[in-house]
Design brief:
Oligomer: single chain
Largest sheet: none
Distance between the termini: 57 Å
Radius of gyration: 21 Å
Number of strands: 0
Strand content: under 5%
Order of helices and strands: HHHHHHHHHHHHHH
Structural class: mainly alpha
Number of domains: 1
Shape: globular
Amino acid sequence: MKDILIRGWVAGWRTTWTLSKVIVPITFVLTLLKHTPVLEWIVWLFTPIMGAFGLPGDAAIVLALGWFLNLYAAIGAIFSLQLNSPEVMILSVMLSFCHNIFIETAVAKRIGLSGPVLAMIRVVTSLIGGWLVHLGYGNHPGSIAGTYGHEAYLWDVSLWTTAKEVVLTIWGGVYKLALIVIPLMVVIQVLKEFSFLDRIATLMNPLLAFCGLDKKAAIPMLAGLFFGLAYGSGVMIEAARENPLPKRQLYLLMIFLVLCHAVVEDTLIFVPVHVNGWYLLGSRLLAALVLTAVLARIWRAGRDVNQSQKAVIAK
């Protein structure tokens, strides 16, 4: 048993190191950008299109913070604006599909997938989801009197204050990563040794088959669903050392997870702003299942056609 725990511990530290090399530099840059006019420029670009989603112009603040920073920053902005229930629901759907896009896309790229493709899928799904909710509510953008103000710019704060914020933010991110990834890897190692993973995979077979995946995707999918995209990717990175998934299945799995991951945390975070968590979770799960299943069948059909064409040419 001791050897099993040691192997899990080593795997956890190795995965934490791999993910940290992605997360730390991006966190460093984004923390600095908070103290520059960049976010305000992004808001200026987004504002003209907010009306198409039944949102007032200042809602671009929420989207920019959520897409490029994280959900917590977006929730803080929602609290500072006078948004009605339909507007908050629209924003929550859009943000649940697409948030923290720089870090989560970089992590996906680390396992050999195309970052721009996955980022595009998230952005497009976010926009379509928000538009469909807007149509369902039939709401029109109202006027809001926001109290949001920009962060102090770099030249307004001391170098020491900025450096301290950067260090604390990076340390907090890596600490949280290690706190989840290392125990997770230890548990997975134990489950693997006692053949529990095979039983879990068997139970998930119908869901995996519907999404065009085999049983090797079961554990990364569970890790991503409950612990988040970065941690799910960490499990995939470690699994790739022993039993890698084919490239096609990696894409399908990551597409599912970018649309539906960290279902507990990412759902509960919206409850304080009076969003129905069940509706939000249902929309994410439905979108992930439908899009992944459709792409799996299109991909398989395209592959079958190519194989048929090659067979004809060979004859």
